[in-house]
Design a protein that fits this description.
The chain is mostly helical. It has one domain. Helix content is about 65%, strand content about 0%. The chain is built from 9 helices and 2 strands; from the N terminus they run H-H-E-E-H-H-H-H-H-H-H. It has a two-stranded antiparallel ribbon with strand order 1-2. Helix 3 packs across helix 7, helix 5 packs across helix 8 and helix 6 packs antiparallel against helix 7.
């Protein structure tokens, strides 16, 4: 069965797109974000978010700073593996999968970063109803020119956790069980990062779910279009060809090099 059959597209594109569109429509047309934030993250008595003040040690230092550092270290290791695969023969088999993860993460983070520059949406902590001094302007509303530029949509930190979606697509070609574990891990890490940022007042729920959708569909596009559903096999064929080339050349009698194929 082809890895990109109709069932694949239904499970990985159709259903996720439908769920995301339904949520985005509800969030844009209602006060879901504000209600959700008031329900758990914002204390109306102190007029502070639970992840600020005394909560900074876990929301900012632990989840945001330490969590972000761990993701950057993982990304650095993958970039190093990819780069060294051009010099170290034993790493050549990992060049294609490492390159897939690096490319997926870079494009996903780039898409989120670009939207943060274009959307001009405030953080919750800047809004008057959450202790700030700015009015709430919905995502698709006309923002008054008198308001300062804002860069809080989508959620950047949670996108670094959801970037682990790339590991799910990486594992699809090796083990469906490992792929499911990778998917669960990505949802867990991205969810924890989102929780920490929403607890600080840095983002609303929709900010982080938009990030999850952007990263998911970026990874899907790289996997299906860039790699045609095959992250591993081409590297395996290349390594096999490289391994047999020397022996075939040496086996060819002098003057008859065209008799035997090179690979």
């Amino acid at each position: 069965m082809h890895p990109l059959d109709r069932d694949f597209w239904r499970r990985h594109a159709g259903w996720p797109a439908l769920l995301f569109i339904l949520f985005a429509t509800v969030a844009a047309g209602t006060g879901l974000d504000e209600s959700f934030a008031r329900a758990w993250a914002f204390d109306p008595v102190t007029r502070h978010f639970i992840g600020s003040g005394a909560g900074e040690w876990w929301a900012k230092e632990l989840i945001h700073s330490t969590g972000g550092l761990l993701i950057r270290i993982l990304g650095g290791i993958l970039v190093l593996v990819w780069a060294l695969s051009f010099r170290i023969g034993s790493l050549r088999h990992w060049r294609r999968p490492a390159g897939f993860v690096v490319l997926s993460v870079a494009l996903g983070a780039g898409a989120v970063g670009l939207l943060k520059q274009l959307t001009n949406v405030d953080c919750p902590w800047s809004l008057a109803e959450f202790g700030g001094d700015l009015p709430y302007v919905p995502l698709f509303a006309d923002r008054p020119d008198s308001l300062p530029r804002a860069q809080c949509f989508p959620g950047g930190h949670s996108s670094s956790g959801f970037a682990l979606f790339a590991l799910y697509f990486l594992m699809l070609g090796r083990s469906r069980r490992l792929a499911r574990w990778a998917l669960g891990g990505a949802l867990l890490v991205g969810g924890v990062f989102a929780f920490g940022q929403e607890a600080r007042g840095a983002h609303f729920l929709s900010h982080d779910l938009w990030s999850a959708a952007l990263v998911w569909f970026t990874c899907l596009t790289v996997y299906a279009v860039g790699y045609r559903g095959n992250v591993w096999e081409a590297a395996g064929r290349g390594a096999a060809a490289a391994a047999i080339q020397p022996s075939t050349r040496s086996a060819s009698p002098p003057g008859q090099s065209g008799r035997y194929p090179a690979s």
